[in-house]
Amino acid sequence: MQKRTLVWDLPLRIFHWALVSLIFAQWLTAEVLEGYMDYHAVFGYTLLGLMIFRLLWGFVGPKHARFNDFLRRPKAIWQYGQSLFSRHQPTYTGHNPLGALIVPAILIVVGTQAVSGLFTTDDVLFNGPYYPAISSELQGTMQWLHHKMFDVLLVIIALHVLAITSYQFLLKKPLIGAMFHGHKNVQSKSGISSSRWPLAIVLALIIFIFMYWLVVIAVPEIELDYYY
């Protein structure tokens, strides 16, 4: 018997909405507001930390947050795609095989953009912490990646919003609400017993320390020479 069951853990939900907010903030500080590149950089460092968290959470998080629960072979993805408009569409407690592709796509694209941002400049007031430490050729490559990955990200976001809207209003599957409260109407045995939030807090603290080391302590001395 199906009943309201916890499926999406709290850390995963926080990650999701933090990701949405930070991507919007990144766009705002880069494309709309002027003189906010320092904030843009901090948001970028936070996004990189989020990507690291999601990558690790995909191995140690609750069942439906783990990669081995939702990443499936091409054949399964193809079969699910063919069944989208049939009356006997299979149901999944967590991500379906097609929707699950958004996770590695976001990790790759946002991760690439965040890493490349460490090596870029706005040619006015801001340089990434590792910008002076690489060759001019590599600087150009990183600059290109940083901008092109955002264009790719916009396409992914558009496809994701379209898919979520279709599931919500055409297929009558309340996916949006589930990403707020974490519950779905499924068999209780297929849900999760806890969000493992103490583990998530420890993991977040470790990542915070690592990011502080990366962008403050480990910055090459050439960066200090550049400014002073």
Question: How would you sum up this structure in a few lines?
Answer:
The protein has 228 residues and is mainly alpha-helical.
Blueprint of the fold:
Blueprint: E1 2-6, H1 10-32, H2 37-60, H3 67-70, H4 74-82, H5 102-117, H6 136-169, H7 175-181, E2 183-187, H8 197-217, H9 221-227
Antiparallel strand pairs: 1-2
Global Rg = 20 Å
Helical coverage, percent range: 55-70%
Question: Termini separation (Å)?
Answer: 67 Å
Strand order of the largest sheet: 1-2
Poorly predicted residue ranges: 223-228
Number of helices, where a helix is a run of at least 4 consecutive DSSP H or I residues = 9
Structural notes for this entry:
- With 228 residues, the chain is mainly alpha-helical.
- The protein contains 9 helices and 2 strands; from the N terminus they run βαααααααβαα.
- It has helices at residues 10-32, 37-60, 67-70, 74-82, 102-117, 136-169, 175-181, 197-217, 221-227, and strands spanning 2-6, 183-187.
- The protein has a two-stranded antiparallel ribbon with strand order 1-2.
- Helix 2 (37-60) crosses helix 8 and helix 5 runs antiparallel to helix 6.
- The longest helix has 34 residues, at 136-169.
- The radius of gyration is 20 Å and the shape is globular.
- The protein starts with a strand and ends with a helix.
